[in-house]
């Protein structure tokens, strides 16, 4: 069992101000795999003070020096890729092959994208012949990240903030903290100055709330549930700090008959990926009426063919969900969904042969209408709801009838129809026909899915203030 009680503050590994052990549970086995410490106010204050002291110098470090450090970080990250893959697989249950390819790969992908964007980013822009617009780092930033895509979210926040001249305090999820601890080691090995990057573990009620309310924190960047995002916004309001939120989703996947079986197969697989623990998962499948029965059969087959197993095993299966609390929540929503719609695959309990670990059956609930709880609440598990529509306008109305607006999906070979729908669905991202987004594409949502954008140029701009200066020339 690992013992990882220390925090990374002001360039050093330090003991917590007060002992407060917390067990990290391997979701594949339900066994304790590590012990960390949760910080308190003294630890938070120390991390913020270190970041505040480092900011005046770091803000004006030359771009070439920052680029060299970020390139070194990428080198270190790749050198330790297997170590990172093992850590994420153990702490949050991603099967090891997926952890290597997707969980680790997401971090390096975004880091490479930020390097490209940062190299040509204009921090000084001519507004008129005599007036300049300057883009300057906002200051001390607190980065609160989730457990479902650990490196994806840590890199999307820490790298752009540091690149543009902010200093940072990272609080990774206490449920899956091992990857965040490793990332702190990478930052240290890369040689970033003391105080530029700090990391301490803690829960939302403790360190999370302390960072949100701290008068010396200039910005909070948070990824997690919409419920927590609202609490953070309220806590941050007293100091009027900037709050950037990437929150939940209930993505609609609009499948027209002309998309055929391929559209349904892709949509179901995409829903079950990462055991359904993705805020942008297409969990509402909207199918054209004339294709509905066939689509239900295809999705049901996909669920039944999706294997579930331990994260340590190689293969294309899905692993457990992250925790007992998450497992219980999903079971409760599946039970509600069974009562509301028609269960065609999966259901309650663990898959056969898996009696220990937080494993959930890939589940399909058909004959769902959008007023049902299963259609409105984010499950965050491998659970697919299938609805039907008759007209394009009805499909758009159903897709938009949700408090969320992160990612919607459209499946049709008809370019005109696809573009028509893409313009009218209310979400920050629209993926069509399985075409993934480019490196540096803005990630973020509308409505209760949040208010910020991450990735590439948009991610850099998120951590900048705009200053107008007259009489420059």
Uncertain spans = none
CATH topology of the largest domain: Aldehyde Dehydrogenase, Chain A, domain 1
What percent of residues are in strands? 15-25%
Q: What topology, given as strand order, has the largest sheet?
A: 15-16-17-14-13-18-19
CATH superfamily placement of the largest domain: Aldehyde Dehydrogenase, Chain A, domain 1
Please state the overall shape, judged from the principal axes of the Cα atoms.
globular
Instruction: Measure the end-to-end span.
Output: 63 Å
Quantity of strands, as a count: 20
Mean pLDDT: 98
* Largest sheet report: 7 strands, mixed
The number of helical elements comes to 15
Helix content, binned percent: 40-55%
The CATH class assignment of the largest domain is: Alpha Beta
Q: Mind telling me the C-alpha Rg? A: 23 Å
Helix/strand class: alpha/beta
- Tell me the domain tally: 2
The CATH architecture of the largest domain is 3-Layer(aba) Sandwich
Organism: Octadecabacter dasysiphoniae
Keywords: Oxidoreductase
Protein name: aldehyde dehydrogenase (NAD(+))
Pfam families: Aldedh (PF00171)
Task: Report on the architecture of this protein.
- By secondary structure, this protein is of the alpha/beta class.
- It is built from 15 helices and 20 strands.
- It has two domains: 2-247 and 450-469, Aldehyde Dehydrogenase, Chain A, domain 1, CATH 3.40.605; 252-439, Aldehyde Dehydrogenase, Chain A, domain 2, CATH 3.40.309.10.
- It has helices at residues 41-58, 63-79, 81-92, 96-120, 150-163, 178-190, 204-213, 226-237, 260-272, 292-305, 324-340, 373-376, 392-400, 415-424, 456-461; strands spanning 2-4, 7-9, 12-14, 21-26, 31-37, 124-126, 132-137, 140-144, 167-171, 197-199, 219-223, 242-246, 252-255, 284-288, 342-345, 363-366, 383-389, 407-411, 429-432, 464-469.
- The strands form five sheets. Strands 15-16-17-14-13-18-19 form a seven-stranded mixed sheet, with helices on both faces. It has a five-stranded parallel sheet with strand order 10-9-8-11-12, with helices on both faces. A three-stranded mixed sheet has the order 1-5-4, with helices on one face.
- Helix 8 (226-237) links the parallel strand 11 and strand 12.
- The radius of gyration is 23 Å and the shape is globular.
- The model has no long low-confidence stretch (mean pLDDT 98).
- Keywords: Oxidoreductase.
